[in-house]
């Protein structure tokens, strides 16, 4: 295979070890060395890969490196690749070219053999983290009996073995209780690339100055599912939405997005970006709360990514935002994996006042505005002495902009919630 590009990534010697682990050697041009931490990709599965063809085995590694290749304009050399996957990447590239005009996108694929894969479509799956979004997507898709797929090596580093065991045990219990099948994938897909150098060179073009969150994580996570799609005959793989609908309407960009996910496929398997009609608070109100009331089960929500000691620290921005959303809907956070007391909302008030610039700089203002827009004018909830906080918070200026603009946003959110209520409820039953 001749190298004809000044920048290139060659995928060589893709093979299966021990019947369940994909290993691929990467050879890349010297001018790309700073973007790689190692030259070997691996993904370990809990299913046999004996009957999975090379064109599918290459999907995980190609999905992992394609955002980098597009950013720098590197050609990709690979022996075999699924034909539908290659076509879907061309569609997604058209979308991302508009989002990232400073990326090169001059990548050319050099493939010896494009393969059209056929297999039955008898099952569905859900990419699952145990967070609020994926729990709500599971609840909404429960009638489809989705197989749950968890990944170790994305949000939880491979070095955090003890922490991963805790997480795995929690959701093995969840899957058992729900009578659902759970698959685990272990991979160095995130650690393959040098995230620090990618942020240094491309972070300024990315939402929240994040390469993993804003660009790579959707491709990487979904691509890892391809071998399981073949072994489990998956027709659809659902991935829970994480971008606020208001942000989507305003052109919000994230690494998992309807315009990306819904256009990714391989063989007969389609990806479905699920739940983007809901805001995070609407997921709690219209999906999680009815599930708890109906089944009497409080799912463990692991939302914290700020540390790897406790499953939820209860003190970071994301933990506090989730706690606030749960309490607003009269759901006890202590039943969902958090530990709070009657001082929680005094701490939260000080946290918001002190850390508002940080919240705004990390593009989380829309999430807090979403919570704010659902606070009734007459607050009745007082779980953990929260009533005083909600009375204060509903008038708190979260935006750097003027108060009238904030109020306009709040009114629009309330009106949109009423206008879309029937549609939202109908979609709950549909999914």
Please describe what this structure looks like.
- With 431 residues, the protein is an alpha/beta fold.
- It folds into two domains: 8-274, no CATH class; 280-430, no CATH class.
- It has 17 helices and eleven strands.
- The protein has helices at residues 54-57, 59-72, 83-99, 132-140, 161-177, 195-202, 211-223, 226-231, 245-249, 258-261, 280-295, 317-328, 344-361, 365-373, 387-393, 403-419, 421-430; strands at 8-17, 21-28, 40-45, 75-82, 109-115, 123-127, 147-152, 182-187, 234-240, 265-266, 269-274.
- The protein has an eleven-stranded mixed sheet with strand order 5-4-1-2-3-8-7-6-9-11-10, with helices on both faces.
- Strand 4, helix 3 (83-99) and strand 5 form a beta-alpha-beta unit.
- Residues 1-5 and 401-431 have low confidence and may be disordered.
């Amino acid at each position: 295979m001749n190298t004809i590009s000044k920048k290139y990534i060659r995928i060589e010697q893709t093979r299966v070890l021990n019947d369940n682990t994909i290993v691929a050697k990467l050879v890349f041009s010297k001018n790309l060395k700073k973007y790689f931490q190692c030259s070997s990709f691996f993904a370990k599965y809990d299913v046999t890969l004996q009957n999975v063809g090379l064109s599918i085995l290459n999907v995980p590694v190609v999905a992992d490196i394609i955002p980098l290749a597009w950013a720098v304009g590197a050609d990709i050399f690979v022996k075999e690749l699924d034909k539908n996957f290659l076509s879907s990447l061309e569609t997604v590239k058209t979308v991302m070219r508009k989002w990232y005009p400073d990326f090169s996108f001059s990548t050319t694929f050099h493939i010896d053999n494009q393969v059209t894969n056929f297999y039955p479509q008898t099952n569905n799956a859900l990419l699952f983290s145990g967070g609020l979004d994926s729990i709500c997507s599971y609840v909404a898709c429960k009638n489809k009996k989705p197989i749950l797929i968890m990944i170790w090596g994305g949000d939880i580093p491979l070095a955090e073995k003890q922490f991963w065991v805790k997480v795995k045990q929690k959701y093995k219990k969840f899957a058992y209780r729900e009578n659902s099948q759970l698959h685990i994938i272990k991979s160095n897909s995130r650690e393959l690339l040098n995230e620090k150098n990618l942020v240094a060179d491309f972070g300024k073009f990315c939402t929240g100055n994040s390469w993993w969150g804003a660009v790579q994580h959707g491709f990487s996570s979904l691509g890892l599912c391809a071998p399981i799609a073949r072994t489990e005959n998956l027709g659809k793989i659902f991935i829970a939405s994480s971008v606020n609908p208001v942000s989507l309407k305003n052109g919000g960009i994230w690494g998992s997005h309807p315009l990306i996910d819904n256009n990714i496929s391989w063989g007969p398997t389609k990806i479905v970006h699920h739940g983007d009609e809901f805001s995070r608070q609407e997921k709690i109100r219209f999906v999680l709360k009815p599930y708890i009331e109906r089944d009497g089960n409080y799912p463990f929500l692991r939302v914290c990514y700020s540390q790897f000691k406790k499953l939820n620290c209860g003190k970071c921005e994301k933990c506090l935002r989730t706690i606030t959303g749960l309490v607003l809907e009269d759901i006890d956070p202590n039943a969902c994996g958090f530990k709070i007391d009657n001082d929680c909302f005094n701490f939260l008030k000080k946290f918001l006042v002190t850390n508002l610039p940080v919240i705004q700089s990390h593009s989380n203002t829309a999430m807090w505005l979403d919570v704010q827009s659902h606070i009734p004018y007459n607050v009745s909830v007082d779980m953990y002495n929260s009533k005083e906080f909600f009375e204060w918070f509903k008038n708190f200026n979260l935006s750097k902009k003027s108060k009238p603009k904030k109020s306009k946003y709040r009114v629009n959110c309330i009106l949109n919630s009423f206008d879309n209520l029937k549609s939202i409820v109908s979609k709950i039953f549909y999914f």
